[in-house]
Amino acid sequence: MSLKILIKRLLFLVLVVWAASTITFFIPRISSRNPIRERFAQLARIGGFSPQDMEIIVASYNAKFGLDKPLWAQYLDYMSSIARFDLGVSFNQYPKTVAAMIGDALPWTIALLFVTTILSFIIGNLLGALAAWPRSPQWLRIVSAPFVLLQGAPPVLVGILLIFFIAFRLKLLPLSGAHSIGIVPSWSWKYAVDMSRHQVLPALSIILGTVGGWVLSMRGMGVTIQGEDYVLFAEHKGLTPSIIFRDYYLRNALLPQVTGLALAMGTLIVSGALVEGVYGLPGLGGVLGAAITANDFPVIYGIVLFITVGVATLMVLVELLYPLLDPRVRHD
Amino acid sequence: MTTTTAAISQMAQPTATLQPGRLTLVLRYLRRNKSLALGLLIMFLLLAFTVIGLAIVDHKLAYPLAVKPKQPPSLQYPFGTDFFGRNLLAAMVLGMWQTALIGVIAGALGTLVGVVLGFMSAYFGGLLDMGIKGICQILTPIPAFLIQIIIAGSIDRRDVTIYTMAFVVVLLAWMGPTLVIRSQVLTMKERQYVAVAKLSGMGDLGIIFGEILPNLLPFIVAAFVTQVFGAVFASFYLAILGLGPVREPLLGNLIWAAQGQGAFFNGWWWWPVIPASAMVLILASLALVNVGLDEVSNPRIRRTE
Q: What predicted TM-score, i.e. pTM, was given to this entire model?
């Protein structure tokens, strides 16, 4: 891979991050909603201070957060604070910074999404490849057929149905939460078992909700690859079917799937976040859902921006890994 | 891409020339293309449910305080009633109608913007093309749904209606069709029939509407189905987070409300499960039709059995 491509991709990444942060800066400022005013109106309803007092408080807060400056100065402030990973302070849990909240939530999300995405990618692609492979047994083809239907069911919906059937009806696994109420997080077997039991259904929802897409696209890809000359050539060379399957068929069919993984990154993280919300897990999605309900605007903007930048970075990373898989790209 | 257009025109010709009627041929094709057939069947059943329901059921029952709350499914309330006293059968009918409305409005608008921008970009080229293509490429990696959260969150909750919802969804959903149409027009504009039209003194508008647009139709239809699928998805996700028109019985809203009231903890399982199952059916039928249409337009993945 040449340095030129690397610099090009990184420049593109910077542009994407800039566009995303500019959008998250301007949209709330066009809007008629004023988060600070709304927050204090909410407080005024509970503890009595007069409307005049409120105007003074709002004005002082505007000054504190620099909201009385002209728009361009606010924009420059905002951009420089983003460059320093300063995403502001939460309204709801006041002294806590948004960056700290993201830091607390991130390990949960990464653990859940990393494991499920890799499992789903491997299972889906293997099933899809086997379903299209002419030598595989008939039952495999029948097994892979219902996955077309699964393709339409997003992880959140699978999650709700799994909660109903497995947690509510059969009472096999807990309904929601990261651990049972009353158990204090600690490094013990009891806590580890309890926590993993709470992670099974969310993980299953994400895997079942995403695997259909991989099966389907891989099956389509597999049918195309079978007709290629190099597969015929390998057969005439007398190579064993397992080598043809692994080195000639699977490897070539997987290439576009890796690009697909890069493109699906955004959807994967968003649907993972919604699953976390449904199961009440403490990951990014759970925090985002709570922030939306509580009108905690800095947290909403912070998490959205963080995920956006993360997705764009992952996409570029997968693209940079591509030459490792495809020698044709490497030699260009 | 040339092969796909050729394939589509080949598909269209035998229907006109062969002896058996159009309908039998379509049915015969559907028997081979099972995903398209199943998708259309589910879609038709859902449509029938919605249309008959809209005609029979009293719309007021879908709003709070209409019936006795928290009733499990029974003969009187086939889908039960929720915590706020909504009859879930009526809510299902109205919710599906509204979901379809958002999908079609957002899908049509997104496709329209995409066709216009893609056309201008490819046909006129130059700076305009660079600008449109650049903006699309920079916006594509940004998960549209996240920006939609910010837009939907910035609107005053009382102002959110079905139509603002469709609008929010469209704002970040036009890049896909723009890029697809742009690449199609780029190849079409080099074809000989366009050159002939140009030499014979046809104006830009004449070439666009008389020569290129008719050949582009299959791609526009495909883009439209994809757009509707995306719009239904996006509006459902927004509603499930509580960013939809909260008063309306949209399917996502029902699930959001059920989550908020701890429906599973309280044993009101039917409240979230029924809208979730309906949504699975809607999305599955759209996905099946999408896959089926792919098979029509891309003969390489057509099943040989």
A: 0.81
